[in-house]
Amino acid sequence: MTYHPKSDFIATMIERGFLADCTDYQGLDDALISGVQTAYIGYDATAQSLHVGHLMNIMVLRWLQKTGHKPITLMGGGTTKVGDPSFRSDERPLLGPEQIDANIAGMKQVFSKYLSYDDSETGALMLNNAEWLDSLNYLDFLRDIGRHFSVNRMLSFESVKSRLDREQSLSFLEFNYMILQAYDFLELNRRYNCVLQMGGSDQWGNIVNGIDLTRRVLDHEIYGLTTPLLTTSDGRKMGKSQGGAVWLNGDMLSPYEFWQFWRNTTDADVGRFLKIFTELPVDECDRMGALAGSEINEAKVRLANEITTLLHGAEAAATAEATAREVFEKGGVGGDLPTLTLSASELGDGMSIVQLIVKSGLAKSGKEAKRLIAENGAKLDDAPLTDAGLMIDVGALSSPIKLSAGKKRHALVKLG
């Protein structure tokens, strides 16, 4: 990207790897240097906690505030009743109002760790789109808002098109979602002078819809900015571990397990993740990302500590690191752990976790290993292991992994 930004926010987005696309770089950049601007990201309340997949955009809001602007976290109390169809092959289960409110309460706990909600000019706002969506009059909405939308154009958006191309059902309820999201941007611009909507690259169509609608109804100049879809270097979607979603609420995933998730980052991702998920200087992130051997493992510990400190506090991060070192490096569980050393040729394209459990002596047969996993008795690096089909390749063994059967039997697996 050749654009040279004048504003601190866009410069940060570019150099730290947050930027996928923008509707008007020059216009947004000029707006950002002219004074405090308000921007938002929307979050549907489909679970009681946000997960690691949300963390990149939470960091975007944090940088927005740190560079002198005002973030809005828009909770989808209204839109969650409809469900975002973007890039899903099925309809979301519909949630009732009590569940939606409970989910929003759980998600708020995380935002307050990253953003300052106060009365200052750049103080973050927590809003709920149920405030304006719940009281909409259907006929008025159709006449005033619906007339600005072309069904032909809506059918051309990738999120809708992919569903229709596969001949999967797309209900009228879901089809309305993009109109409601566009209306959110219009209302936020009208009520709070919000000029920027941000989101993942899968939200591009929805964001552009909101900009078009706001220009048509209010004739205001507003902008959209998207972040890249984050995948790990081996192509997996960010935010999933062997045990399922990596939740950000401490009561759904312990700080130790959260720390361990980051400690297990693949070597090739360390530099990139330091830039995105921590506030360390870019040069330092690049330096650590280029390390090799045992030094890259210390960089992973630094990555885990920095990210865990932001979310759970410095004490939780220090405790997690101490526990991990106790387990891996010292006596007790660590020093006399049976160790299975595999060569790269033995590992080949990968070995199933079931085979590894048997080879390491934690189970006598594949059947016993599968039963151990099915009964939640197996752990990988102290995180519950639920996927019996998991394949471990050379990348996954860039640092030793710890397998556990029950609470007292452990083994290390490493590359020789």
Automatic annotation (TrEMBL):
Binding site for L-tyrosine: 40, 177, 181
Location relative to the cell: Cytoplasm
Short motif ('KMSKS' region): ranges: 237-241
Keyword Iron: no
GO aspect biological process, one term: tyrosyl-tRNA aminoacylation
Keywords assigned by UniProt, alphabetized: Aminoacyl-tRNA synthetase, ATP-binding, Cytoplasm, Ligase, Nucleotide-binding, Protein biosynthesis, RNA-binding
Short sequence motif 'HIGH' region: positions: 45-54
Entry function: Catalyzes the attachment of tyrosine to tRNA(Tyr) in a two-step reaction: tyrosine is first activated by ATP to form Tyr-AMP and then transferred to the acceptor end of tRNA(Tyr).
Family in the record: Belongs to the class-I aminoacyl-tRNA synthetase family. TyrS type 1 subfamily.
Subunit structure: Homodimer.
Descriptive protein name: Tyrosine--tRNA ligase
UniProt source species: Ruegeria conchae
Originating gene: tyrS
